[in-house]
Amino acid sequence: MAQMNLLQAVNNALITAMIQNDKVLVLGEDVGHFGGVFRATSHLQEKFGKGRCFNTPLTEQGIIGFANGLAAQGAFPVAEIQFADYIFPAFDQIVNETAKFRYRSGGQFSCGTLTIRTPYGGGIAGGHYHSQSPEAFFAHCPGLRIVVPRNPYQAKGLLLASIRDDNPVLFMEPKRLYRASVCDVPEDDYELPLGKADIVQEGEDITLVGWGAQVEILQRASERALEEGITCEIIDLRSIAPWDAETVIESVMKTNRLLINHEAPMTGGFAAEIATTIQDKCFLYLEAPIARVCGLDTPFPLAHEKEYMPDETKTYEAIIRTMHY
């Protein structure tokens, strides 16, 4: 075991994957000698050379287009989009090429070995071009996996599983957690299952569902609710596509209440998909309407970031409203 923050865990996962498989390549804006804007790819070029860790032009469409070609020819590219806010110029490449190449070619070609890493989310006073959470845009597209870690241990295990999975993966890293804390991370090679949620905390009164940095928010709100005798079951989805509906269904059948928390705007957010599924499968078990605590339906603000964020107080208040319905 070693103490690592989330950035170090990502870096360690990349080193582990590149040692284990010489077809793993890292590419993106400033990922080489500079190590990327957050230094997630530090020292990779020194260790593995410019042929396996290299800078690209500042063109997201070009990064993913080139990575698609690499993957289709047998490489395992890990492409970095410097901020999730800048992934949209590559949207066509991702949803019309990366996700569909296997299907449009009848299985003759695939981009399944491609992993796209990108930091997402607010909490760093980055304004509306460095704070967005666009996971729901991509969850709508069949053929992609979407994975979001909540801590360093999860980051390494999920990233290694993503790189080795036979499907293209969008790996979204909550940037406000990059250096926020450390935890024990195995220095050895390990993987965590994709598409399987993690029950972070067991409880009896209400199920709280989130992913990424918002899991910590759920934990804080749960602690406040416990002071009033309310026990919360907390589930970290870890994967948005596919998402582990069975684990959430089983929990809601036990607690009879559900709250979903995500940082993206509420309208069209992934919480709506979860709520619809649970309403369909657990309707007769529910004792209150399903609650959503999300970002606001506005561009991400700079001056009013704290008002925008679905924080522990908003979450706690929603728990109380649901319990007293």
Brief summary of the model shown:
The protein is α/β, with parallel strands linked by helices. The chain has helices at residues 6-20, 44-48, 60-72, 91-98, 101-104, 135-139, 152-164, 214-226, 245-255, 270-282, 305-308, 312-323; strands at 2-4, 24-28, 53-55, 76-80, 115-120, 145-147, 169-174, 183-185, 198-201, 206-210, 232-236, 239-241, 258-265, 291-295. The chain folds into 2 domains: 2-185, Rossmann fold, CATH 3.40.50.970; 198-323, Rossmann fold (3-Layer(aba) Sandwich).
Would you mind describing this structure in some detail?
By secondary structure, the chain is α/β, with parallel strands linked by helices. The protein has 2 domains: about 1-185, 3-Layer(aba) Sandwich (Rossmann fold); about 200-325, 3-Layer(aba) Sandwich (Rossmann fold). The protein is built from 12 helices and 14 strands. Helix 8 (about 215-225) links the parallel strand 10 and strand 11 (about 230-235). The longest helix has 15 residues, at about 5-20.
